Amino acid sequence: xxxxxxxxxxxxxxxxxxRGPFCPPGLDQAIQYAVFPGGARIxxxxxxxxxxxxGEDHPEISDAAAASIELLHCASLVHDDLPCFDxxxxxxxxxxxHHAFGERLAVLTGDALIVLAFQALTRAASRAPERLPQLxxxxxxxxxxxxxxxAGQAWECEPEVNLADYxxxxxxxxxxxxxxxxxxxxxxxxxxxxxxxENIGSAYQVVDDILDVAGDAEQLxxxxxxxxxxxxxxxxxxxxxNGARRHFESVMAGIVEKIPPCPGRARLKxxxxxxxxxxxxxxxxxxxx
Amino acid sequence: xxxxxxxxxxxxxxxxxxRGPFCPPGLDQAIQYAVFPGGARIxxxxxxxxxxxxGEDHPEISDAAAASIELLHCASLVHDDLPCFDxxxxxxxxxxxHHAFGERLAVLTGDALIVLAFQALTRAASRAPERLPQLxxxxxxxxxxxxxxxAGQAWECEPEVNLADYxxxxxxxxxxxxxxxxxxxxxxxxxxxxxxxENIGSAYQVVDDILDVAGDAEQLxxxxxxxxxxxxxxxxxxxxxNGARRHFESVMAGIVEKIPPCPGRARLKxxxxxxxxxxxxxxxxxxxx
Lengths: 289, 289
Description:
Two copies of one chain form a homodimer. Chain A is an all-alpha fold. Helices cover 68% and strands 1% of the residues of chain A. In chain A, α1 packs across α4, α3 (42-53) runs antiparallel to α14 (265-277) and α4 packs antiparallel against α9 (163-185). The longest helix of chain A has 23 residues, at 163-185. The two termini of chain A are 36 Å apart.
């Protein structure tokens, strides 16, 4: 099975298995809308690629880890788009969840997706329950109050913030969880795997900052110019456009060295290069060369 | 140790152990504010009372279950008070979280508390990890998309809703989780324990509906008349004030019969009666007699 099909299937199954007769129709639709069709699914793809490279023995646990991470990513987008944050009318080229379903269902959709992420992990881990506590800890940390997305987003409410810390919390943490959880799902020590995810996350975030200035709103499916308009910390604001491009190149150059020894290292290296080469559109990458 | 001291201590320790150098100060304060000082802490007290009656062998797991349930309750209050829902200026006699800290930190506080609830459970269960999956399942169900608080709140966005189903989701589910998780934390089959929690939840919800009509805003620490103003399903709207009082009496009369056989049944019976007798202020209870 193609990896993207695998990601879509485990997301569908996770949501389907949590449907019930008491699920309100509006919430049910809003949850579907928030998760499908998705974006690049980069985090779950990386998670599955790491699990595969580590010699996964329980694919259903890797599936759940990947799904859990993507659900938390979707939850963060829904809440991040809310009027009190970015007030974004568009996401993935169509109305954001609160524009399509109202603000109340958008808040609840985010909440439901967070809960669902932990349920998915728990159910899948029944064949190797000793892996569950570590997986929950890895994934909870990456979204929580002191080292995860929530912390990153809350730094936007502070008068001053260190750019690198902010980007690590808001973006790097979930990428680090993707690589660490991929390893832990395969029964492998996750610690050496965090640096790979952090570096992929850094590259991704720098590109996100570049695209917010130099990208195309239609291609991106969301408005541009938001970092400047909202005063968000941004690599481009701190380093300028060319500085940000050079930073991207230097992070990219070191990424594959971060892959720890594992049975499928060559295969993983190829996948990481393939995924991260898609980050920056060719037209913008050429400028940096 | 007094049970309320025990509840406060485990909430304090749970939050403290999740603090870190990257936790933004505003979010940190808002989380503290959302959890302390608390209300009656009725759900965690019931959870601990059930664990005790079941002969708890790992008090740290009961503590975490109780803390987890209370954190989820606090999260639901913070999100429920948001402008897009009840737009409540007051909670527990002082400004609600979004009034004190702004809407963005209120959304993030709720999100952080949900994540923290699952982290607390996971860490505490290290001494009896075989109990973790069941505890997560019980607690996640009680807040999730098809049988928990989120579902209950989302039914408020639907044109029609069955009152009993709505109350079971919005209130009963977390009370049922409190009794079931108390049993599961003690290594006892949780299924027979759900009915007790559901019934305590019903009694609590009817009283909440009565107080919204006949209570005192200052004593309650929140505005009254909200169910009518917002068109929320309510026992009083459906049965009238006297009908609701009679319904409360009939639920109360059957509560102690729902306590399954267990070593500390007599002690638990006394505690359940004591806690639930505080639900309805004497002035209002007399009317019903």
